Amino acid sequence: FQMLRRIRAEHGADQALGRFKRGLREQYLMLQLDEKQALAQLPNLLKGHEQQGPQLFDIIKRIVTAGDPLNAEAQRRLSQMEQRFCPSTPAPRRRRKGKTASAKGTA
Q1: Quick one: how far is CA 80 from the chain centroid?
Q2: What is each CA distance from 69 to 2, 16, 65, in whole angstroms?
Q3: Residue 107: what pLDDT?
Q4: Plot region of 48 (φ>0 → left; ψ -120 to 50 → alpha; else → beta)
Q5: Mean pLDDT of 57-77
């Protein structure tokens, strides 16, 4: 519970405590009702806020790892969340360099 208070103080201090708790409960219930659909909707919810994804995932990770160590299933689920909040960006393409004039003349 202390972790949630710290996170609220850091990121949601402008929200009343009751509203913050209600929001957490709603999110939890959505996951309970249809986990796959809730996970599938994350990219839509993050649209326009993609840069905040890693920061939001860090908050989630702090909450779920605040207690006992995660079992294999919980780690798998956390990994799924990370993939949605922190999608890897493709590495920039590197241009192929042709042989330079100095390299052609040496052998």
Answers
A1: 9
A2: 17, 31, 7
A3: 47
A4: left
A5: 88
Collapse the DSSP code of 30 into the 3-class scheme (helix H, G, I; strand E, B; otherwise coil) and give the result.
helix
83, amino acid identity: Q
The amino acid occupying position 88 is S
Residue 95 tokens read as 């241009």
Residue 18 burial (10 A CB sphere; 0-12, 13-18, 19+)? exposed
pTM of this prediction? Answer: 0.60
**Which residue matches tokens 């409960």?**
25
CA-CA-CA-CA torsion for 53, 11, 1, 24, nearest 10 degrees? -60
> At 70, phi and psi to the nearest 5?
-75, 140
